[in-house]
Specification:
The complex is a heterodimer of chains A (273) and B (282). By secondary structure, chain A is of the alpha/beta class. Chain A has 10 helices and 10 strands. Chain A has 2 domains: 159 residues, P-loop containing nucleotide triphosphate hydrolases (Rossmann fold, 3-Layer(aba) Sandwich), CATH 3.40.50.300; 69 residues, no CATH class. The model of chain B has no long low-confidence stretch (mean pLDDT 89). With 282 residues, chain B is mainly alpha-helical. In chain B, α5 runs antiparallel to α7. Chain B has 2 domains: 40 residues; 220 residues, no CATH class. In chain B, 84% of the residues lie in helices and 0% in strands. The chains are: A alpha/beta (273), B mainly alpha (282). At the A-B interface, α3 and α4 of A face α6 of B.
């Protein structure tokens, strides 16, 4: 009897529409007289990887910066876990940001600190209750997850571009975020390292159960990581769907984007999601 | 008529009314833009000052970072300040000695040099050197952090960059520059004693006794007080310029350069005000 009830409950839950963790409605953002985002609306669902594709200057990075309020939107609403980001006070915003990990395009590691200190920096400020031993264990675990255990005492300047990205990813996951925002995670990297980063994104999702927005114009990365894809063009959503629907699209803009890009080796990797 | 024509040809064509009107309107637009930019800059500066003040008195003071900055501002500037202080004292003595000798007042040399060092030369020269060394360093460091999105990364990880980056730097400069000034004064008097011994023979004890007997509390106290303001201005301007740097790498150099210029102007203005206040009080 109990088993039956539990099965019914599970089926009922599965039948419910998925819960959005981020909900963007009619977002507008401009700089001086140039409107970068125009009436943009999208949703990110729980435990989903949403890839946002688009040409340079299409407003992809502006979109995720508005999500964490590094930039103030001119109009529209952004709800994260149901709360309107635009209306939050400083304390509420700080509390929300604890739940969000942001991987910057160039890593944004603190130059004057070692990798250990880089990881320790957010950890000791966000999780003040942790003991020294627990902090060290968390740092080591995060670095191990990105395959950088050996670099713990190195300075960021001693690392290669790919390693810096991975170290930066370790810094974001060390505080156990619920949402990950990746700003062009594979830009400037060679194809092999790009594939490694794409795999790491999938691993982070699996291990930390995160929902992610991945901003990219790298089709290989989109193929390897995306559950759902959105194409931005001139500040608006041009197309939304799965990567397969994009590949089969006859739209000239989509075609021009996918035309000369061969599927990468990362596609062969099992996709968790 | 034929004779007049060459003369008329030589007269330059007068600009038409339309061209003149365009020129006037262009000038007016430029002036308006300049005025708007100036007031915007003043507004941003005041807002930054308010945020810094707010962050200074908030909880979770970054004490470790404050100590690190004190070490950076204080200890790492010592060699430069020692050399500068020594040279100022030496030069001042070498230049003043013949003039005082003309009046038969060579014995007043230690007192005169000490007084000018403690009241004016020491604080202002040290502060101006710190504008170059500390102000530009802060501007460039924070500017490059801004360009490489490190400040954004800090903000996103729920750390207030004002509290971590600005407050420790401003406080360190405010507290360390008075110490550096006193240190430069001491080296200046030492340099002066060395200068006095080039053409004469004065004992160390006699020189220092004469130097310190000329300095009163009213000379020393206002000079030290103003150095706290010098320090605050240098730290604050350096941080402000770094924080408001643009996005390109070029803006890092610009931020460093502007930090030096603006901090130097502030030092001179504060000195002017301090001298006026001291003059009224003593």
């Amino acid at each position: 009897m109990e088993q039956e009830i539990s099965n019914i409950a599970r089926e009922a839950t599965a039948a419910l529409p998925p819960k959005p963790v981020i909900e963007v409605k009619n977002l507008r953002k401009g700089f001086d007289k140039v409107e970068v985002l125009r009436d943009l609306s999208l949703q990110l669902f729980e435990n989903e990887n949403l890839v946002v594709l688009g040409k340079s200057g299409s407003g992809k990075s502006v979109l995720i910066k508005c999500m964490v309020r590094l930039l103030r939107a001119d109009a529209g609403t952004i709800r994260i876990f149901g709360e309107n980001v635009q209306e939050m006070n400083d304390r509420e915003l700080a509390e929300l940001r604890v739940k969000i990990g942001f991987l910057f395009q160039r890593g944004a590691l603190y130059d004057s600190m070692t990798i250990r200190e880089n990881l320790e920096f957010p950890l000791v400020r966000i999780k003040k209750y942790l003991s020294r031993k627990e902090i060290d264990a968390k740092i080591e675990e995060a670095l191990e997850n990105v395959g950088l255990s050996d670099t713990i005492n190195k300075m960021p300047s001693q690392l290669s571009g790919g390693m810096r990205k991975r170290a930066s990813l370790a810094r974001t996951i060390v505080v156990d975020p619920m949402i990950m925002l990746y700003d062009e995670p594979t830009t400037g990297l060679d194809p092999v390292t790009s594939d490694e980063i794409s795999m790491l994104i999938n691993n982070v999702k699996k291990k930390y159960n995160t929902s992610s927005v991945i901003i990219t114009h790298d089709i290989a990365c989109a193929r390897a990581t995306g559950d759902r894809v959105i194409m931005l063009n001139e500040g608006e959503v041009h197309m939304e769907g799965t990567i397969r629907s994009f590949e089969q699209s006859s739209d000239p803009l989509i075609q021009s984007f996918f035309k000369f890009r061969e599927p990468s080796s990362a596609k062969a990797q099992p996709h968790h999601g | 008529m034929k004779a007049i024509r060459p003369v008329l040809q030589r007269i330059p064509k007068l600009p038409s009314v339309k061209t003149q009107a365009i020129k006037i309107s262009d000038n007016a637009i430029k002036k308006t833009q300049l005025t708007t930019r100036f007031f915007r800059e003043v507004g941003e500066f005041c807002l930054f000052a308010w945020l810094t003040l707010k962050a200074t008195f908030s909880r979770d003071f970054e004490f470790r970072e404050f100590l690190r900055q004190c070490f950076k501002v204080g200890n790492k500037t010592l060699p430069l300040i020692s050399l500068t202080g020594l040279v100022i004292g030496l030069v001042l003595t070498i230049q003043s000695r013949p003039i005082l000798a003309n009046f038969g007042a060579t014995s007043m040399l230690p007192g005169m040099v000490a007084l000018s060092l403690v009241r004016e030369m020491g604080p202002v020269v040290t502060a101006l050197i710190c504008c170059g060394k500390i102000g530009s360093g802060m501007g460039a460091e924070l500017g490059s952090m801004k360009v490489t999105e490190q400040i954004d990364a800090m903000e996103v990880s729920s750390t207030n960059p004002m509290r971590y980056l600005v407050v420790p730097r401003v406080l360190a400069a405010t507290l360390m520059i008075p110490v550096l000034v006193l240190y430069a004064d001491a080296f200046g008097i030492l340099g002066s004693w060395a200068g006095a011994n080039i053409k004469g023979d004065v004992t160390f004890t006699l020189f220092f006794t004469q130097a310190f007997s000329a300095i009163w509390f009213s000379d020393f106290f206002p000079a030290v007080i103003k150095t706290f303001f010098f320090g605050a201005a240098i730290g604050f301007v350096g941080c402000y310029k770094g924080f408001t740097a643009g996005r390109g790498t070029e803006s890092v150099g610009k931020a460093a350069n502007q930090s030096v210029v603006l901090a130097s102007v502030f030092v001179i203005l504060i000195d002017l005000i301090a001298v006026q206040i001291t003059d009224m009080l003593y």
